[in-house]
């Protein structure tokens, strides 16, 4: 009677980066004093490691393959350790080779760990066995992916003539030396700043520093704009858009001209009038084209006594079936007044994944069984998925690849396990 076997299948996206380093064999030199580290003919058993130099990006993983050059006389345990486990993770940290699987490469995942600085790290991985005389080392470079930049909040500001607003900023990573940032206004007739220079050090780089922006009072009835620029020889230039609403005419003002929400999440901004109206004013709240976000309530009512009392508009990001961010506007309008709009960005929180069905599979020797695979969310373009068996001596899987498109991503495609 045939006996069911447990089978692990690996279905992965075609996303791996190739390593081109040739395999390297590390020998014990035939030390006869190490029992079990010789083959049946009395020759040395050697570690086969590839690659011997690895570069891995923070947050990413590369694979180290380890096997033996010859059959050992007994089971052989290889342990792995990193010179700095705060920079590099290993999984697993031990490999066991038997007299039957000694030639089958075993994989070790090398994962770069994220840190707050912008420097690459050099880490050594040591492989050793009590049955092999010489330790084996693999040099690993952890490529830092932290770009040094200035993070500003908000990126757009709406203030009234004679009023003030603030912008906060900090660095995205720890600098190796002090970073000075010059702050200036591109239109001094519309807005000025109270701080002309910010200094960030290795100690305060993550702490927000505040710039106060003054809306300049003028005699006209025009809404003015200015860019508050942040420049440094060490950073990419950044800017905040400032809209200075003229307070000499009746208009609609908002607490923000831009808003970011997550899919299924909410955010708010407030709406008020700039002047006392001659009578009641009704402001309509209308989302832009598409189904990216909604705004509620649909209307706001202001009177001669409540004209400057902010009323809240709640923006909700609409959940969709793709993994792309969305952008739209919430438009505000009232009879006789200039329309206003708030830009809305909806961050997509969907993470693409493969969905197998079933998740476990039992196959009788000599028989086959189907396995369905689909994508969890709509991709932006075609996605090629490769399929392979982790133990081809036990079972095989066909076909070797599946292609999903934005139109068929949710339809399971069949793999045959035999």
Beta-strand residue percentage: over 45%
Note the gap between the termini: 17 Å
Main sheet: strands, sense, barrel: 5 strands, antiparallel
* Major sheet strand order: 3-4-6-10-8
User: Which structural class should the secondary elements be placed in?
Assistant: mainly beta
What is the mean pLDDT? 85
* Backbone CA Rg: 31 Å
Query: Number of helical segments?
Result: 0
| Shape type | elongated
The counted number of beta strands is: 37
**Poorly predicted spans:** 1-22, 26-36
Q: Percent range for helical residues?
A: under 10%
How does the SSE layout of this entry go?
Layout: E1 5-6, E2 9-13, E3 24-26, E4 47-50, E5 53-57, E6 61-68, E7 76-82, E8 88-91, E9 94-97, E10 106-112, E11 121-129, E12 132-143, E13 150-153, E14 156-160, E15 164-171, E16 179-185, E17 191-193, E18 197-200, E19 209-215, E20 224-231, E21 238-245, E22 252-254, E23 258-262, E24 266-273, E25 281-287, E26 293-296, E27 299-302, E28 311-317, E29 326-333, E30 340-347, E31 354-357, E32 362-363, E33 369-375, E34 383-389, E35 397-398, E36 401-404, E37 413-417
Parallel strand pairs: 5-12, 14-21, 23-30
Antiparallel strand pairs: 1-32, 2-34, 3-4, 4-6, 6-10, 7-9, 7-11, 8-10, 11-12, 13-15, 15-19, 16-18, 16-20, 17-19, 20-21, 22-24, 24-28, 25-27, 25-29, 26-28, 29-30, 31-33, 33-37, 34-36, 35-37
């Amino acid at each position: 009677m045939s006996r069911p076997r447990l089978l692990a299948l690996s279905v992965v996206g075609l996303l791996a980066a190739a390593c081109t380093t040739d395999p390297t064999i590390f020998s014990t030199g035939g030390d006869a004093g190490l029992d079990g580290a010789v083959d049946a003919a009395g020759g040395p058993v050697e570690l086969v490691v590839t690659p011997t130099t690895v570069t891995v990006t923070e947050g990413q993983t590369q694979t180290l393959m380890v096997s033996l050059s010859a059959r050992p006389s007994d089971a052989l345990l290889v342990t792995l350790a990193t010179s700095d486990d705060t920079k590099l993770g290993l999984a697993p940290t031990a490999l066991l080779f038997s007299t039957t699987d000694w030639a089958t490469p075993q994989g070790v995942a090398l994962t770069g760990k994220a840190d707050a600085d912008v420097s690459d790290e050099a880490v050594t991985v040591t492989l050793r066995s009590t049955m092999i005389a010489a330790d084996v080392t693999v040099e690993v470079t952890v490529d830092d992916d932290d770009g040094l930049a200035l993070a500003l909040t908000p990126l757009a500001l709406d203030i009234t003539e004679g009023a003030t607003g603030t912008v906060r900023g900090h660095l995205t990573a720890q600098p190796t030396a002090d970073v000075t940032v010059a702050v200036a206004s591109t239109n001094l007739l519309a807005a000025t700043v109270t701080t002309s220079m910010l200094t960030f050090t290795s100690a305060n780089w993550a702490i927000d520093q505040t710039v106060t922006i003054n809306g300049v009072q003028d005699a006209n009835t025009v809404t003015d704009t200015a860019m508050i620029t942040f420049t440094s020889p060490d950073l990419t230039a950044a800017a905040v858009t400032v809209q200075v609403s003229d307070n000499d005419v009746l208009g609609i003002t908002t607490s923000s001209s831009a808003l970011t929400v997550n899919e299924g999440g909410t955010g708010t901004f407030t709406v008020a009038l700039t002047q006392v109206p001659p009578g009641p004013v009704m402001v309509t709240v209308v989302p832009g084209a598409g189904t990216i976000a909604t705004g509620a309530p649909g209307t706001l009512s202001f009177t001669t006594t409540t004209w400057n009392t902010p009323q809240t508009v709640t923006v909700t990001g609409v959940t969709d079936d793709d993994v792309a961010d969305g952008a739209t506007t919430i438009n505000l309008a009232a009879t006789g007044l200039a329309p206003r709009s708030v830009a809305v960005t909806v961050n997509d929180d969907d993470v693409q994944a493969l969905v197998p069905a079933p998740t476990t599979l039992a196959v009788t020797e000599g028989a086959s069984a189907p396995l369905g695979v689909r994508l969890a969310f709509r991709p932006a373009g075609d996605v090629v998925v490769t399929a392979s068996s982790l133990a081809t001596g036990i079972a095989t899987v066909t076909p070797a690849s599946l292609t999903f498109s934005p139109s068929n991503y949710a339809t399971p495609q069949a793999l045959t396990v035999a």
